[in-house]
Write a structure and sequence with these properties.
The protein has 135 residues and is mainly α. Helix 3 crosses helix 4. The protein is built from 6 helices and no strands. It is elongated, with a radius of gyration of 18 Å. It has one domain. The structure holds zinc ion (ZN). The site of zinc ion has 8 residues, from helix 3.
């Protein structure tokens, strides 16, 4: 399904010979739109996380996290389309886990908690993916 994204986002027909009905194609288009919106919403504001009791500067810590997350979430360097929030989030998590800037500016527990929130987002999306295709 994700492989259809380039055609859908450019407005091309999915498949002229498609056995899908007009109504089924509408469901798919709406689902893709919903998933793109889901990603944009997440990318503009990462989920909040709990700071470690030892976190001396929670505002700076949150700022560092938001800065790196937002910079990465909107980038085209992530090799998956925005409708593929699951693989995109997985990639963001992978990059942020080893990010030297975050290692320097966030206490380990804060980083762990923040990464856990991304994991929860991914799991929620996985569980509710089919609802994006409800009309
Ligand atoms: Zn913190």
């Amino acid at each position: 399904m994700v492989e259809m994204e380039p055609k859908l986002s450019s407005g091309e027909p999915i498949d002229v010979e498609s056995p899908l009905t007009r109504s089924e194609l509408t469901h798919i288009r709406c689902g893709y739109l919903s998933l793109r919106c889901w990603w944009s919403q997440l990318a503009s504001k990462p989920p909040s996380f709990k700071h470690s009791p030892r976190c001396m500067y929670p505002e700076k810590c949150s700022y560092a996290w938001r800065l790196k997350f937002e910079g990465l979430a909107e980038t085209e360097k992530i090799p998956f389309p925005k409708v593929d929030g699951i693989r995109r989030l997985q990639e963001v998590q992978k990059c942020l886990t080893v990010d030297p800037f975050l290692t320097k500016f966030m206490p380990e527990t804060c980083r762990h908690n923040a990464l856990q929130e991304l994991q929860k987002c991914r799991e929620n999306l996985l569980r509710q993916l089919h609802h994006h295709f409800d009309l």
